[in-house]
Amino acid sequence: MILSRIYPGTTEAIDLDDASSRDTLRDWYQPTGMSVVRMNLITTIDGSVGGTDGTSHTLSNPADRRILGVIRELADVVLVGASSVRREGYLLPRHARLAVVTGSGDLTGHGFGTDVEPGRLVVLCAAASVGRLMETLGGVPAEIVTLPLTDGALSMTDVITALRVRGMESIVCEGGPSLASQLLAADLVDELCLSTSPVIGGSDQQLLPAGVAVDRRATLTQLIVDDASGLYARWRMGGEPTAAPPAIE
Fold it and tell me: In whole angstroms, what separates CA 75 from the centre of its chain?
């Protein structure tokens, strides 16, 4: 598969079959600093975050997965919400640590093995959810970080702070929509890496949940297209905070 970077500058192209393509992608996706929150998501043209099976797997392709791997390599930790763990059957990233945010403590359906190395999995939750969390983890070793509730929900500022005090400065959030919208509303996202699958339709779950209003400005810093009409954009985020979206379950 051929990837062509059409912005900025003159068009550059790479073949994913070439051994050097991963190094080029690492250059294209270098973060803007050591301490940065990136969001990496895939949607359909009309904004669905899942395909016909309800997961992102049917929207992805080799180019998207290669970019996902490179962005993870460049991060200290991958941050996800519990809904994504339940829906996608999440596995631990190969290189980065994984942090899961949950309000309910319900991680039913996760794909973690019981042989997880110490420190590789971090779960951030309210103290009242620890019992349910331990039950649904099913013996998977994890560092459990309890955070206070603010107006009945976990504070995204507390979540990011908790990761950074543990040495995880470069953070990439992979959703789902509840977590993504809360981070955006709190103005904690420095960059959005958005893959657009060349299809219309899919699941009824949108990038921003129904009824959630997030008002943010973004500046395009990079645009890549593959030879199957997939688009891969980097957006620098900025803007004023809005009202907080619904809490993560």
Answer: 11
pTM of model > 0.85: yes
Q: What is the pLDDT of residues 61-90, one digit of tens each?
A: 999 999 999 999 999 999 999 999 998 888
Section 48-57 average pLDDT: 87
> Cβ–Cβ contacts within 10 Å for residue 84, how many?
23
Among candidates 89, 243, 68, which has minimal Cα distance to 172? 68
Q: DSSP string of 80-137?
A: EEHHHHHHHT----SSSEEEEEESS---TT----TTPPTTSEEEEE-GGGHHHHHHHH
Q: How many domains, the chain?
A: 1
Which of these, 57, 34, 70, lies nearest to 167 by C-alpha position?
A: 34
Among candidate residues 180, 199, 192, the one with its CA nearest the CA of residue 81: 180
Quote helix, strand, coil % in the chain, to nearest 5: 20, 30, 50
Q: Which residues contact 211 (CB under 8 A, 6 or more apart)?
A: none
Task: State pLDDT tens for residues 219-238.
Answer: 999 999 999 999 999 999 98
Q: Check which CATH number belongs to the domain holding 47 and give it.
A: 3.40.430.10
Asked whether residue 9 is assigned to any structural domain, the reply reads no
Do residues 173 and 189 touch, judged by C-beta distance below 8 A? yes
Q: Do 208 and 165 contact (CB within 8 A), yes or no? A: no
Give domain status of residue 248, yes or no.
Answer: no
